[in-house]
Design goal:
6 helices
Length: 205
């Protein structure tokens, strides 16, 4: 078992979730989950308007539409606010952020909307284990990012936790990292071609 696998196992056990995997970043974690859940261009994703930019970046990367809700109180989207949005829009997924460490009642949401895919971002809420509102008990996935400014620091990385099969997530992560590497290589090639075109040495005499 590698150090990352050991760390993921310890954190998953802390959360009471079967599987965990450490990834490059929180963005990669969320993006992997969205792809595994087959979130497609045009799908609507409900998200707290006070969210971190990286969540928005992951949503846009798959071509989905972020449906932002600015909570009226307590910094989390209330069940009434979720009802209103779901009555007016076809929502494929909810990203719950436990904003500023304030507990969001995932159990109540899942009980009323069992078909709604719920992803918890717990970067600000590692200490939440309150009664029946514990992290990951009622959601489909838990994602997080680590860093010096986060509640839990493990270098610059991210993680995914789920009771679902983690192998599919691992394969999706490898595909994403390969795509990023290919894109980076293509960008470097384009820069080189541009520099050569601008270099007087290579211009037609």
């Amino acid at each position: 078992m590698t150090k990352n696998e050991e760390k993921a196992s310890v954190l998953a056990e802390h959360l009471g979730i079967k599987n965990g995997i450490i990834v490059n970043s929180g963005t990669i974690a969320l993006l992997s989950v969205l792809k595994v859940e087959n979130i497609k261009p045009g799908d609507n994703i409900l998200i707290n308007g006070y969210c971190c930019y990286s969540l928005f970046e992951a949503i846009m990367n798959v071509g989905a539409n972020p449906i932002f809700v600015i909570p009226k109180e307590f910094y989390n989207i209330s069940l009434d606010e979720i009802r209103k949005v779901l009555n007016e829009n076809k929502i494929k997924c909810l990203i719950a952020t436990h904003q500023y460490g304030i507990v969001q009642d995932i159990k109540a949401i899942k009980e009323e909307f069992p078909e709604l895919v719920i992803i918890e971002d717990i970067a600000q809420a590692w200490n939440i284990q309150e009664n029946e509102l514990g992290i990951g008990k009622y959601s489909d996935y838990v994602v997080t990012s680590f860093g010096l400014s986060k509640a839990l620091s493990y270098g610059q990385a991210g993680a995914i936790f789920s009771d679902k099969d983690i192998e599919e997530l691992g394969n999706e992560i490898l595909n994403l990292l390969y795509e990023k590497k290919q894109t980076a290589q293509q960008n470097e090639t384009q820069k080189l071609v541009l520099n050569l075109n601008e270099d007087e040495t290579f211009k037609d005499k």
